[in-house]
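[Meeting: bench + compute handoff]

Bench side (C.D.) handed over the final construct sequence. Compute side (W.E.) agreed to return the predicted structure before the next meeting so the bench team could plan truncations. Sequence as handed over:
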Amino acid sequence: MEMISLEKELRENSYPGRGIIIGRSADGTKAVTAYFIMGRSVNSRNRVFVEDGEGIRTQAFDPSKLSDPSLIIYAPVRVLGNKTIVTNGDQTDTIYEGMDRQLTFEQSLRSREFEPDAPNYTPRISGIMHVGGGKYSYALSILKSSNGDPSACNRFTFAYENCVAGEGHFIHTYKCDGDPLPSFEGEPKLVAIPDDMEEFAQMLWTSLNEDNKVSLFVRYIDIASGKYESKIINKNQ
């Protein structure tokens, strides 16, 4: 698979929706993830990321403008032991609870489908990172309608073992802007992962569409020790 320029990819797509990037830093020492949200409506744009234990959650920036919390207020990131879960919805909790009962990542998601937001039927995208014993692997999942048909759910899981230094994968909810919004197609895209968290975060944030971007979360986890550092950037401050 050809590696694409993540910066170019984001700059040329005004509305990828919500996106997950997972990979390994160029020096091989860090497990890396990033998650961003975008919005077109007042309700979707009225959000910020806030820390919540070892993870994060979304929160209304102006509670008086919150019209429907059902699909926009959730915990995108949670940590279960040596596993970091990153998703675009409340399936974070489904994965957390399932894996806590010894189910696999894929099994945990069997009870979920795409979002019930006709006519878009937004895909549920999810990621799991395993960091422990000096080893690192990750997987990405997408649950999507069958070409916009809500009677059929297509399930895809992509697992990456012995992750290559400097490489990661990018998956997002929408192929591009539209009405209805077309779902992401194909495999997660191969992208470069740098060593510097601040540099990576700033590149992502400045590349996202200025009107539609809402919040960004980036985390670098030391593979040897499990210690991590994170960064949150919110458009609403």
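W.E. noted at the follow-up: The chain has five helices and 13 strands. C.D. will use this when planning the next construct.
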